[in-house]
Amino acid sequence: MTAKFPLLVREAFTKLDRDTAHLATNAPRWADVFTPPDHLGALDPDRTMVIGDRGTGKSFWSSVLISNDIRNIVAAEYPRLALQSVEGRLGFSDAAMAANASHPSATEIATIMQAGFKAEDLWRAVLLGIAPSRPHGMPDAAQNWQAAVEWVVADPARRNAEFRALDRDLLQAGKRYVLVFDALDVVADHWAAIRTQMEGMIKLGLAVRALQAVRVKFFIRPDMADDRGIWDVGDASKLRHREVNLNWRRRDLYGLLWTLLANAPDRPGGEAFRDHCNQALGLTFENQYDSWRPPHVLVDDEARQQEVFRALAGDYMGTAPRAGDTYKWVPNHLSDAAGYAAPRTFLLAMQQAANETKARDMVLDRGGIHDGARAASKLRVQELLEDYKWMNTVLKDMANLVVPITAESLVSRWKESGTWASLKSLGMLDGQDRRFIPPGNVLEMTNEDDALLSLIEQLKHLKIFFPLTDGRINMPDLFRLQANVKRKGGMKPRA
Asked: Which pTM was predicted?
């Protein structure tokens, strides 16, 4: 049996970074960066669309793209992308708390739209105004965005010539300019205006396809990727060729965990973790740019990962294998309906597990792990309710149901609860002055049964439901626990 880790390592778990959000304007430390092979596309300038749920790394990878220092280090991890030649700029981000953003704010954007300008012209001005070299004679956009837009609109031929000149200069310098768009759900105050802005960005993205060294890159949520009102632009599908989904495999979650544990800031727990991996398991971490990096075998080989985690938390979630392998149990109970867990959710579960563990012979125990999973479930549902204001109504009306459940039974419960009417009222109330992102086309339909069946499909797409082979609907524990939905054999919902 592998020797157990010293309890001092528990301290490194309690210090795991579990910030609720990462701003694209804030470059991460190299010690906080883990580079899964499957995420190469998230940084590829030629892959325009990156789709991910909250907590999967959209803003994180956006920040890497625009940070020269970190991007140049990451370039060695993804050599095919030649990231050292990239000049990254933020076209938009959630910069409400970031004074160093160079792009227009949502308030400035609204003012420009009210002045009668088109969204496409605004984003053309953004691309030129924050380019590595601003066109001669163009007003300083940072001082006056509306003046920059007026300059773009005043002479289309001059504007187009400046696009070509920018492309030519970049090619001569061996550079590529990537304009990054993040946090687009806050680009305007209501969904119709968000659609307008995104349509303008899409038109910009289509326009620069003719250039060689200029690219745009969108980091967006799944519901925005599927909104027909946004993508109803001629040739928009061309931007979605080779789109990237930010999914985290189990091995990648643990690879991230090892990286963060090994680099626990100013704490002896990180050193104890590295020393035990080296001395007891023959796994040596390498210091690179003042950051400890896990050996490749500990990133790629799940059998070795399992060995390490069992030395931290024991073999099983009970006294026998049927209780579940600890290594597999944690990601399984934090996964959405597609089988993926978000790293932020996973790290919260690990941190909370350490805080709640009572064992004196293991870094983590099964009681702490259970509590960590519940805390992570609660946070994820809270995030859902923030992102999708209609979700609270849907989940509340499902309380005490038992899954798996047939679509007919679920529709019947929602009809009894008046769910569709509640959603329409909520849309009417919130859609005028807040970012009410509708549940697909549910509110636009005229038949209640059809609308509720469409709602089921929307929840499947958001990976909150998943179908069984017999046609019934099931729900992952990650969402089920806090929604107070029951399932035989699952953990009991807890307030």
From this structure: 0.90
Residue 337 belongs to some domain of the structure: yes
pLDDT digits (tens, 9 = 90+) for 262-298: 999 767 999 999 999 999 999 999 999 999 999 999 9
Encode pLDDT of 453-476 as tens digits: 999 999 998 899 999 999 999 999
DSSP readout, 435-477? Answer: -----TTGGG-S-HHHHHHHHHHHHHHTTS-EE-TTS-EE--H
Does residue 375 lie in a domain region?
yes
Give the domain extent around 392. 388-480
Are 133 and 183 within one domain? yes
Q: Are residues 71 and 100 in the same domain?
A: yes
Q: Helix (H) and strand (E) counts for the chain?
A: 23, 9
Question: Largest alpha-carbon pair distance within the chain?
Answer: 75
Same domain as 459, residue 356: no
Q: Which of 19-33, 59-73, 161-175, 479-493 has the lowest mean pLDDT?
A: 479-493
d(CA 380, CA 477): 11
Domain final residue, candidates 245, 275, 295: 245
Tokens of 174: 């061996």
Residue 431: the pLDDT is 47
Closest CA to 49 of 295, 246, 305, 269: 246
Beta bridge partners of 89: 179
Positive or negative torsion for Cα 492, 344, 305, 7: negative
Q: What is the pLDDT of residues 301-337, one digit of tens each?
A: 999 999 999 999 999 888 777 778 999 998 998 899 9
Encoded tokens for 214: 């200029």
Number of domains forming the structure of the chain: 3
Report how far residue 256's alpha carbon sits from residue 444's, in angstroms, rounded to the nearest whole number: 42
Is 220 inside any structural domain?
yes
d(CA 212, CA 202): 17
466-467 and 291-293 as β-strands: parallel, antiparallel, unpaired? unpaired
Read off the DSSP letter of residue 216: E
Residue 24 in any domain: the answer is no
Q: E strands, 143-234, where?
A: 176-181, 214-220
Instruction: State pLDDT tens for residues 50-79.
Output: 999 888 999 999 999 999 999 999 999 999
